[in-house]
Design a protein that fits this description.
alpha/beta, 313 residues, elongated, 11 helices, 14 strands, single chain
Length: 313
Amino acid sequence: MKVCEKFSDLLDYQQPIHWAVGMFDGVHLGHKRVILSADSPGALRGVLTFRTHPLAFLNPAHAPLLITPHPQLKYQLFEKLGVDVVLELVFTPELAALSPTQFLDTLCQHCKVAGISVGANWRFGKGGSGNADFLQHEAQKRGFRAVVSNMLVNGNSTVCSSLIRSLLKEGKMKCAASLLGRPYSIYGPVEHGQQLARKLGFPTANITPSQHSALPKAGVYFVSTQMMSKTYYGIANVGTRPSIDESTKIPRLEAHFPHWHHGDFYGQQLEIFLHDFIRPEIKFDSLQQLQYQIQQDLESIKKRIDAGLTLMV
């Protein structure tokens, strides 16, 4: 899979491309349906998306936090869906000024468009003046396919990124996973911390999420990660560590995997899956109280950790 950053990068492609177009934050079940519908005979499967949410430029105060803020994670999810090429655009004033017709003109001038797949609520072009009906009309004129997918309903819920963000805020990880089609995860490089957890006997893998991340409710979670072709289960705290005296408080993830005995994770890119909320984040009066609570947390999920070694992520 190749990742392109501007329209001109597409000039190298001789083969037609069927594009799935959207922000695809979370790459949830509804997004997957749109991406898989980008399927025309003899054409590559492409995803046209944006590095940051368009509202971050158009109306920053209303820009949503991102379920998948790390580009590398989105690329991995796209590749699993059979995507051949990704065009990830930076949302600029020039791009925002394009009318729907100009946007399609620009795309068609730089590659052979076999089709465009979108969600039914998709809007594009200056002021969001283009919609699915406009796309279908233009597709007929220009000679490519237009595929419009209705909103996906899962159980009693319409699958959408805003609902998933709400579920994360409530710590409802299983409900969020049912809409994502996988457990919610935090992805990033493992950093050096103060090593306080190591001194307490619980070495942790520490990740500082992007400031644009849609994080779950602060607290302790039952988690897993995959390393060396194996799945390891443990616990993680997501929050601002109220028991630790720090000059700057920013959200962090600190995960401990009791069955991991192969050294530290420093410098590695790690994806940590959050399966279940265990308890809220608590401020302790001493590190000894914190140590005791971590032991209790591990004990409370010991059976799940032991049994979980055979479970799929």
